[in-house]
Amino acid sequence: MARDRTRKQIRDALLDELLESCDGPEDVLGKDGLIRQLTGRLVERVLDAELTDHLGYDKHSSAGNGSGNSRNGYRKKTLRDDTGQMEIEAPRDRAGTFEPQLIPKHTSRMPSFDEKVLSLYARGMSTREIQGHLQELYGTEVSPALISTVTDAVVDDATAWQSRPLHEVYPIVYLDALVAKGREERQVQNRAVYTALGINMDGEKEVLGLWIARTEGAKFWLTVLTEMKNRGVQDIFICCVDGLSGFPEAIEAVFPKTTVQLCIVHMVRNSLKFVPWKQRKTVASDLKTIYRAATVEEAEMNLDLFAETWDESYPTISRSWRAHWERITPFFAYPDEIRKVIYTTNAVESLNYSLRRVLKTRGSLPSDQAIVKLLYLAIQRASKRWTRPVQNWKEALNRFAIMFGDRMPVNPVCMFQSMISPSKSSGDRCCC
């Protein structure tokens, strides 16, 4: 305690001494203020320490005599970060073999600068907009080419992320697609972007990947699912999808044991397409009695009542629900609080909504690679907000253990322990 107090007193005395020459906030926080000067000196100290480590002896040490390499003065270097730019003196060695780690050769950007640029890009800002933003707020002049260089550096990260191994089992996977605009031979063309959002055994959301094709179709979904299997996915308990024709069959071709749950929200939306605006509220309320029923039997009865009421005006609605009934009703096997997680693709649609906002701000993009780069950064940004497991996940996991016991990746004892100790990581569980 006494030592800590002494250190604090020394730090306070040093700060007081430094601040004596400052007359106002500008002297501390300004372009050439104290903070910038201290940052520059700190960078120089780190680079000097790196060079010492590279050479293997201290500055002015006789140990360097005859070593074959030595210090060779300094060169001025301009660094940019998210608050502006600064001049430093970077040390050199005579052999030219020194490769600094903090600020690599041929680099003039602090790590925080790259992070700022990537964050702005992930929000959908163009390179020109980022350039203007940095100039206006921080007085930092950067070229669009430099910004493109920073953002292009994530392509390798996106490729590695797209090919990373996945968990063997996902209790729930949501599949959906959105449209992006890309340019090909000076023409703007739509691209279907396929997204897969999984809920892992810990109840955590995880984007499994994104794929680009010219159009959305069950055939390409078959390709997506096959790739997921090749990356390690062996089983999916429930797959939540929209009403795309052939979609359930594509899923079952790759994961034959998977229960396919049609999104109820999509079913309702498609049903209301046939209904005039004045009657939509009433029809939607009657449809709600079907999917909000306590049991499958009650739902069937309410569907019959709906047909009696509305078939004369809108016969297509009840026929569509009956045709898809097997895919609509799986969620009735679960308690009400879990049904909300299963019977809608809202989880992945919420993700896709944020991706659409980013795409909308950019308009058309020059290539499929540019689309992947932008959406990858947007996904990384969005996933930072997923800090908690899915609501009521313990109850859902217990129900999954009963219904899919032979397919669970852990034994019953470990499952019970994981539910009473949710903070325990999956790596601590004992797998069967």
- Give the overall average pLDDT: 79
Quaternary status: single chain
Trace the largest sheet across and list its strands: 5-4-3-6-7
Main beta-sheet strand count, sense and barrel state: 5 strands, mixed
Low-confidence stretches: 412-432
What share of the residues does DSSP label as strand, in percent? 15-25%
- State the total count of DSSP E strands: 7
Q: Count the helices. How many?
A: 19
Report the helical percentage: 40-55%
- What's the shape? elongated
> What gap, in angstroms, lies between the N and C termini?
49 Å
Structural class, by secondary structure, is alpha/beta
Number of domains: 3
Radius of gyration equals 29 Å
* Pattern of helices and strands: HHHEEHHHHEEEHEHEHHHHHHHHHH
What brief labels describe this structure?
elongated; 19 helices; 432 residues; five-stranded mixed β-sheet; single chain; disordered C terminus; alpha/beta
3D architecture notes:
This protein has helices at 2-19, 25-29, 34-55, 111-122, 127-138, 144-152, 155-162, 218-230, 247-254, 264-272, 277-291, 296-310, 315-323, 325-328, 336-342, 346-362, 368-383, 393-403, 412-420, and strands spanning 71-81, 84-93, 169-184, 187-199, 205-213, 235-241, 259-262. By secondary structure, it is α/β, with parallel strands linked by helices. It starts with a helix and ends in a 12-residue tail after the last helix. Residues 412-432 have low confidence and may be disordered.
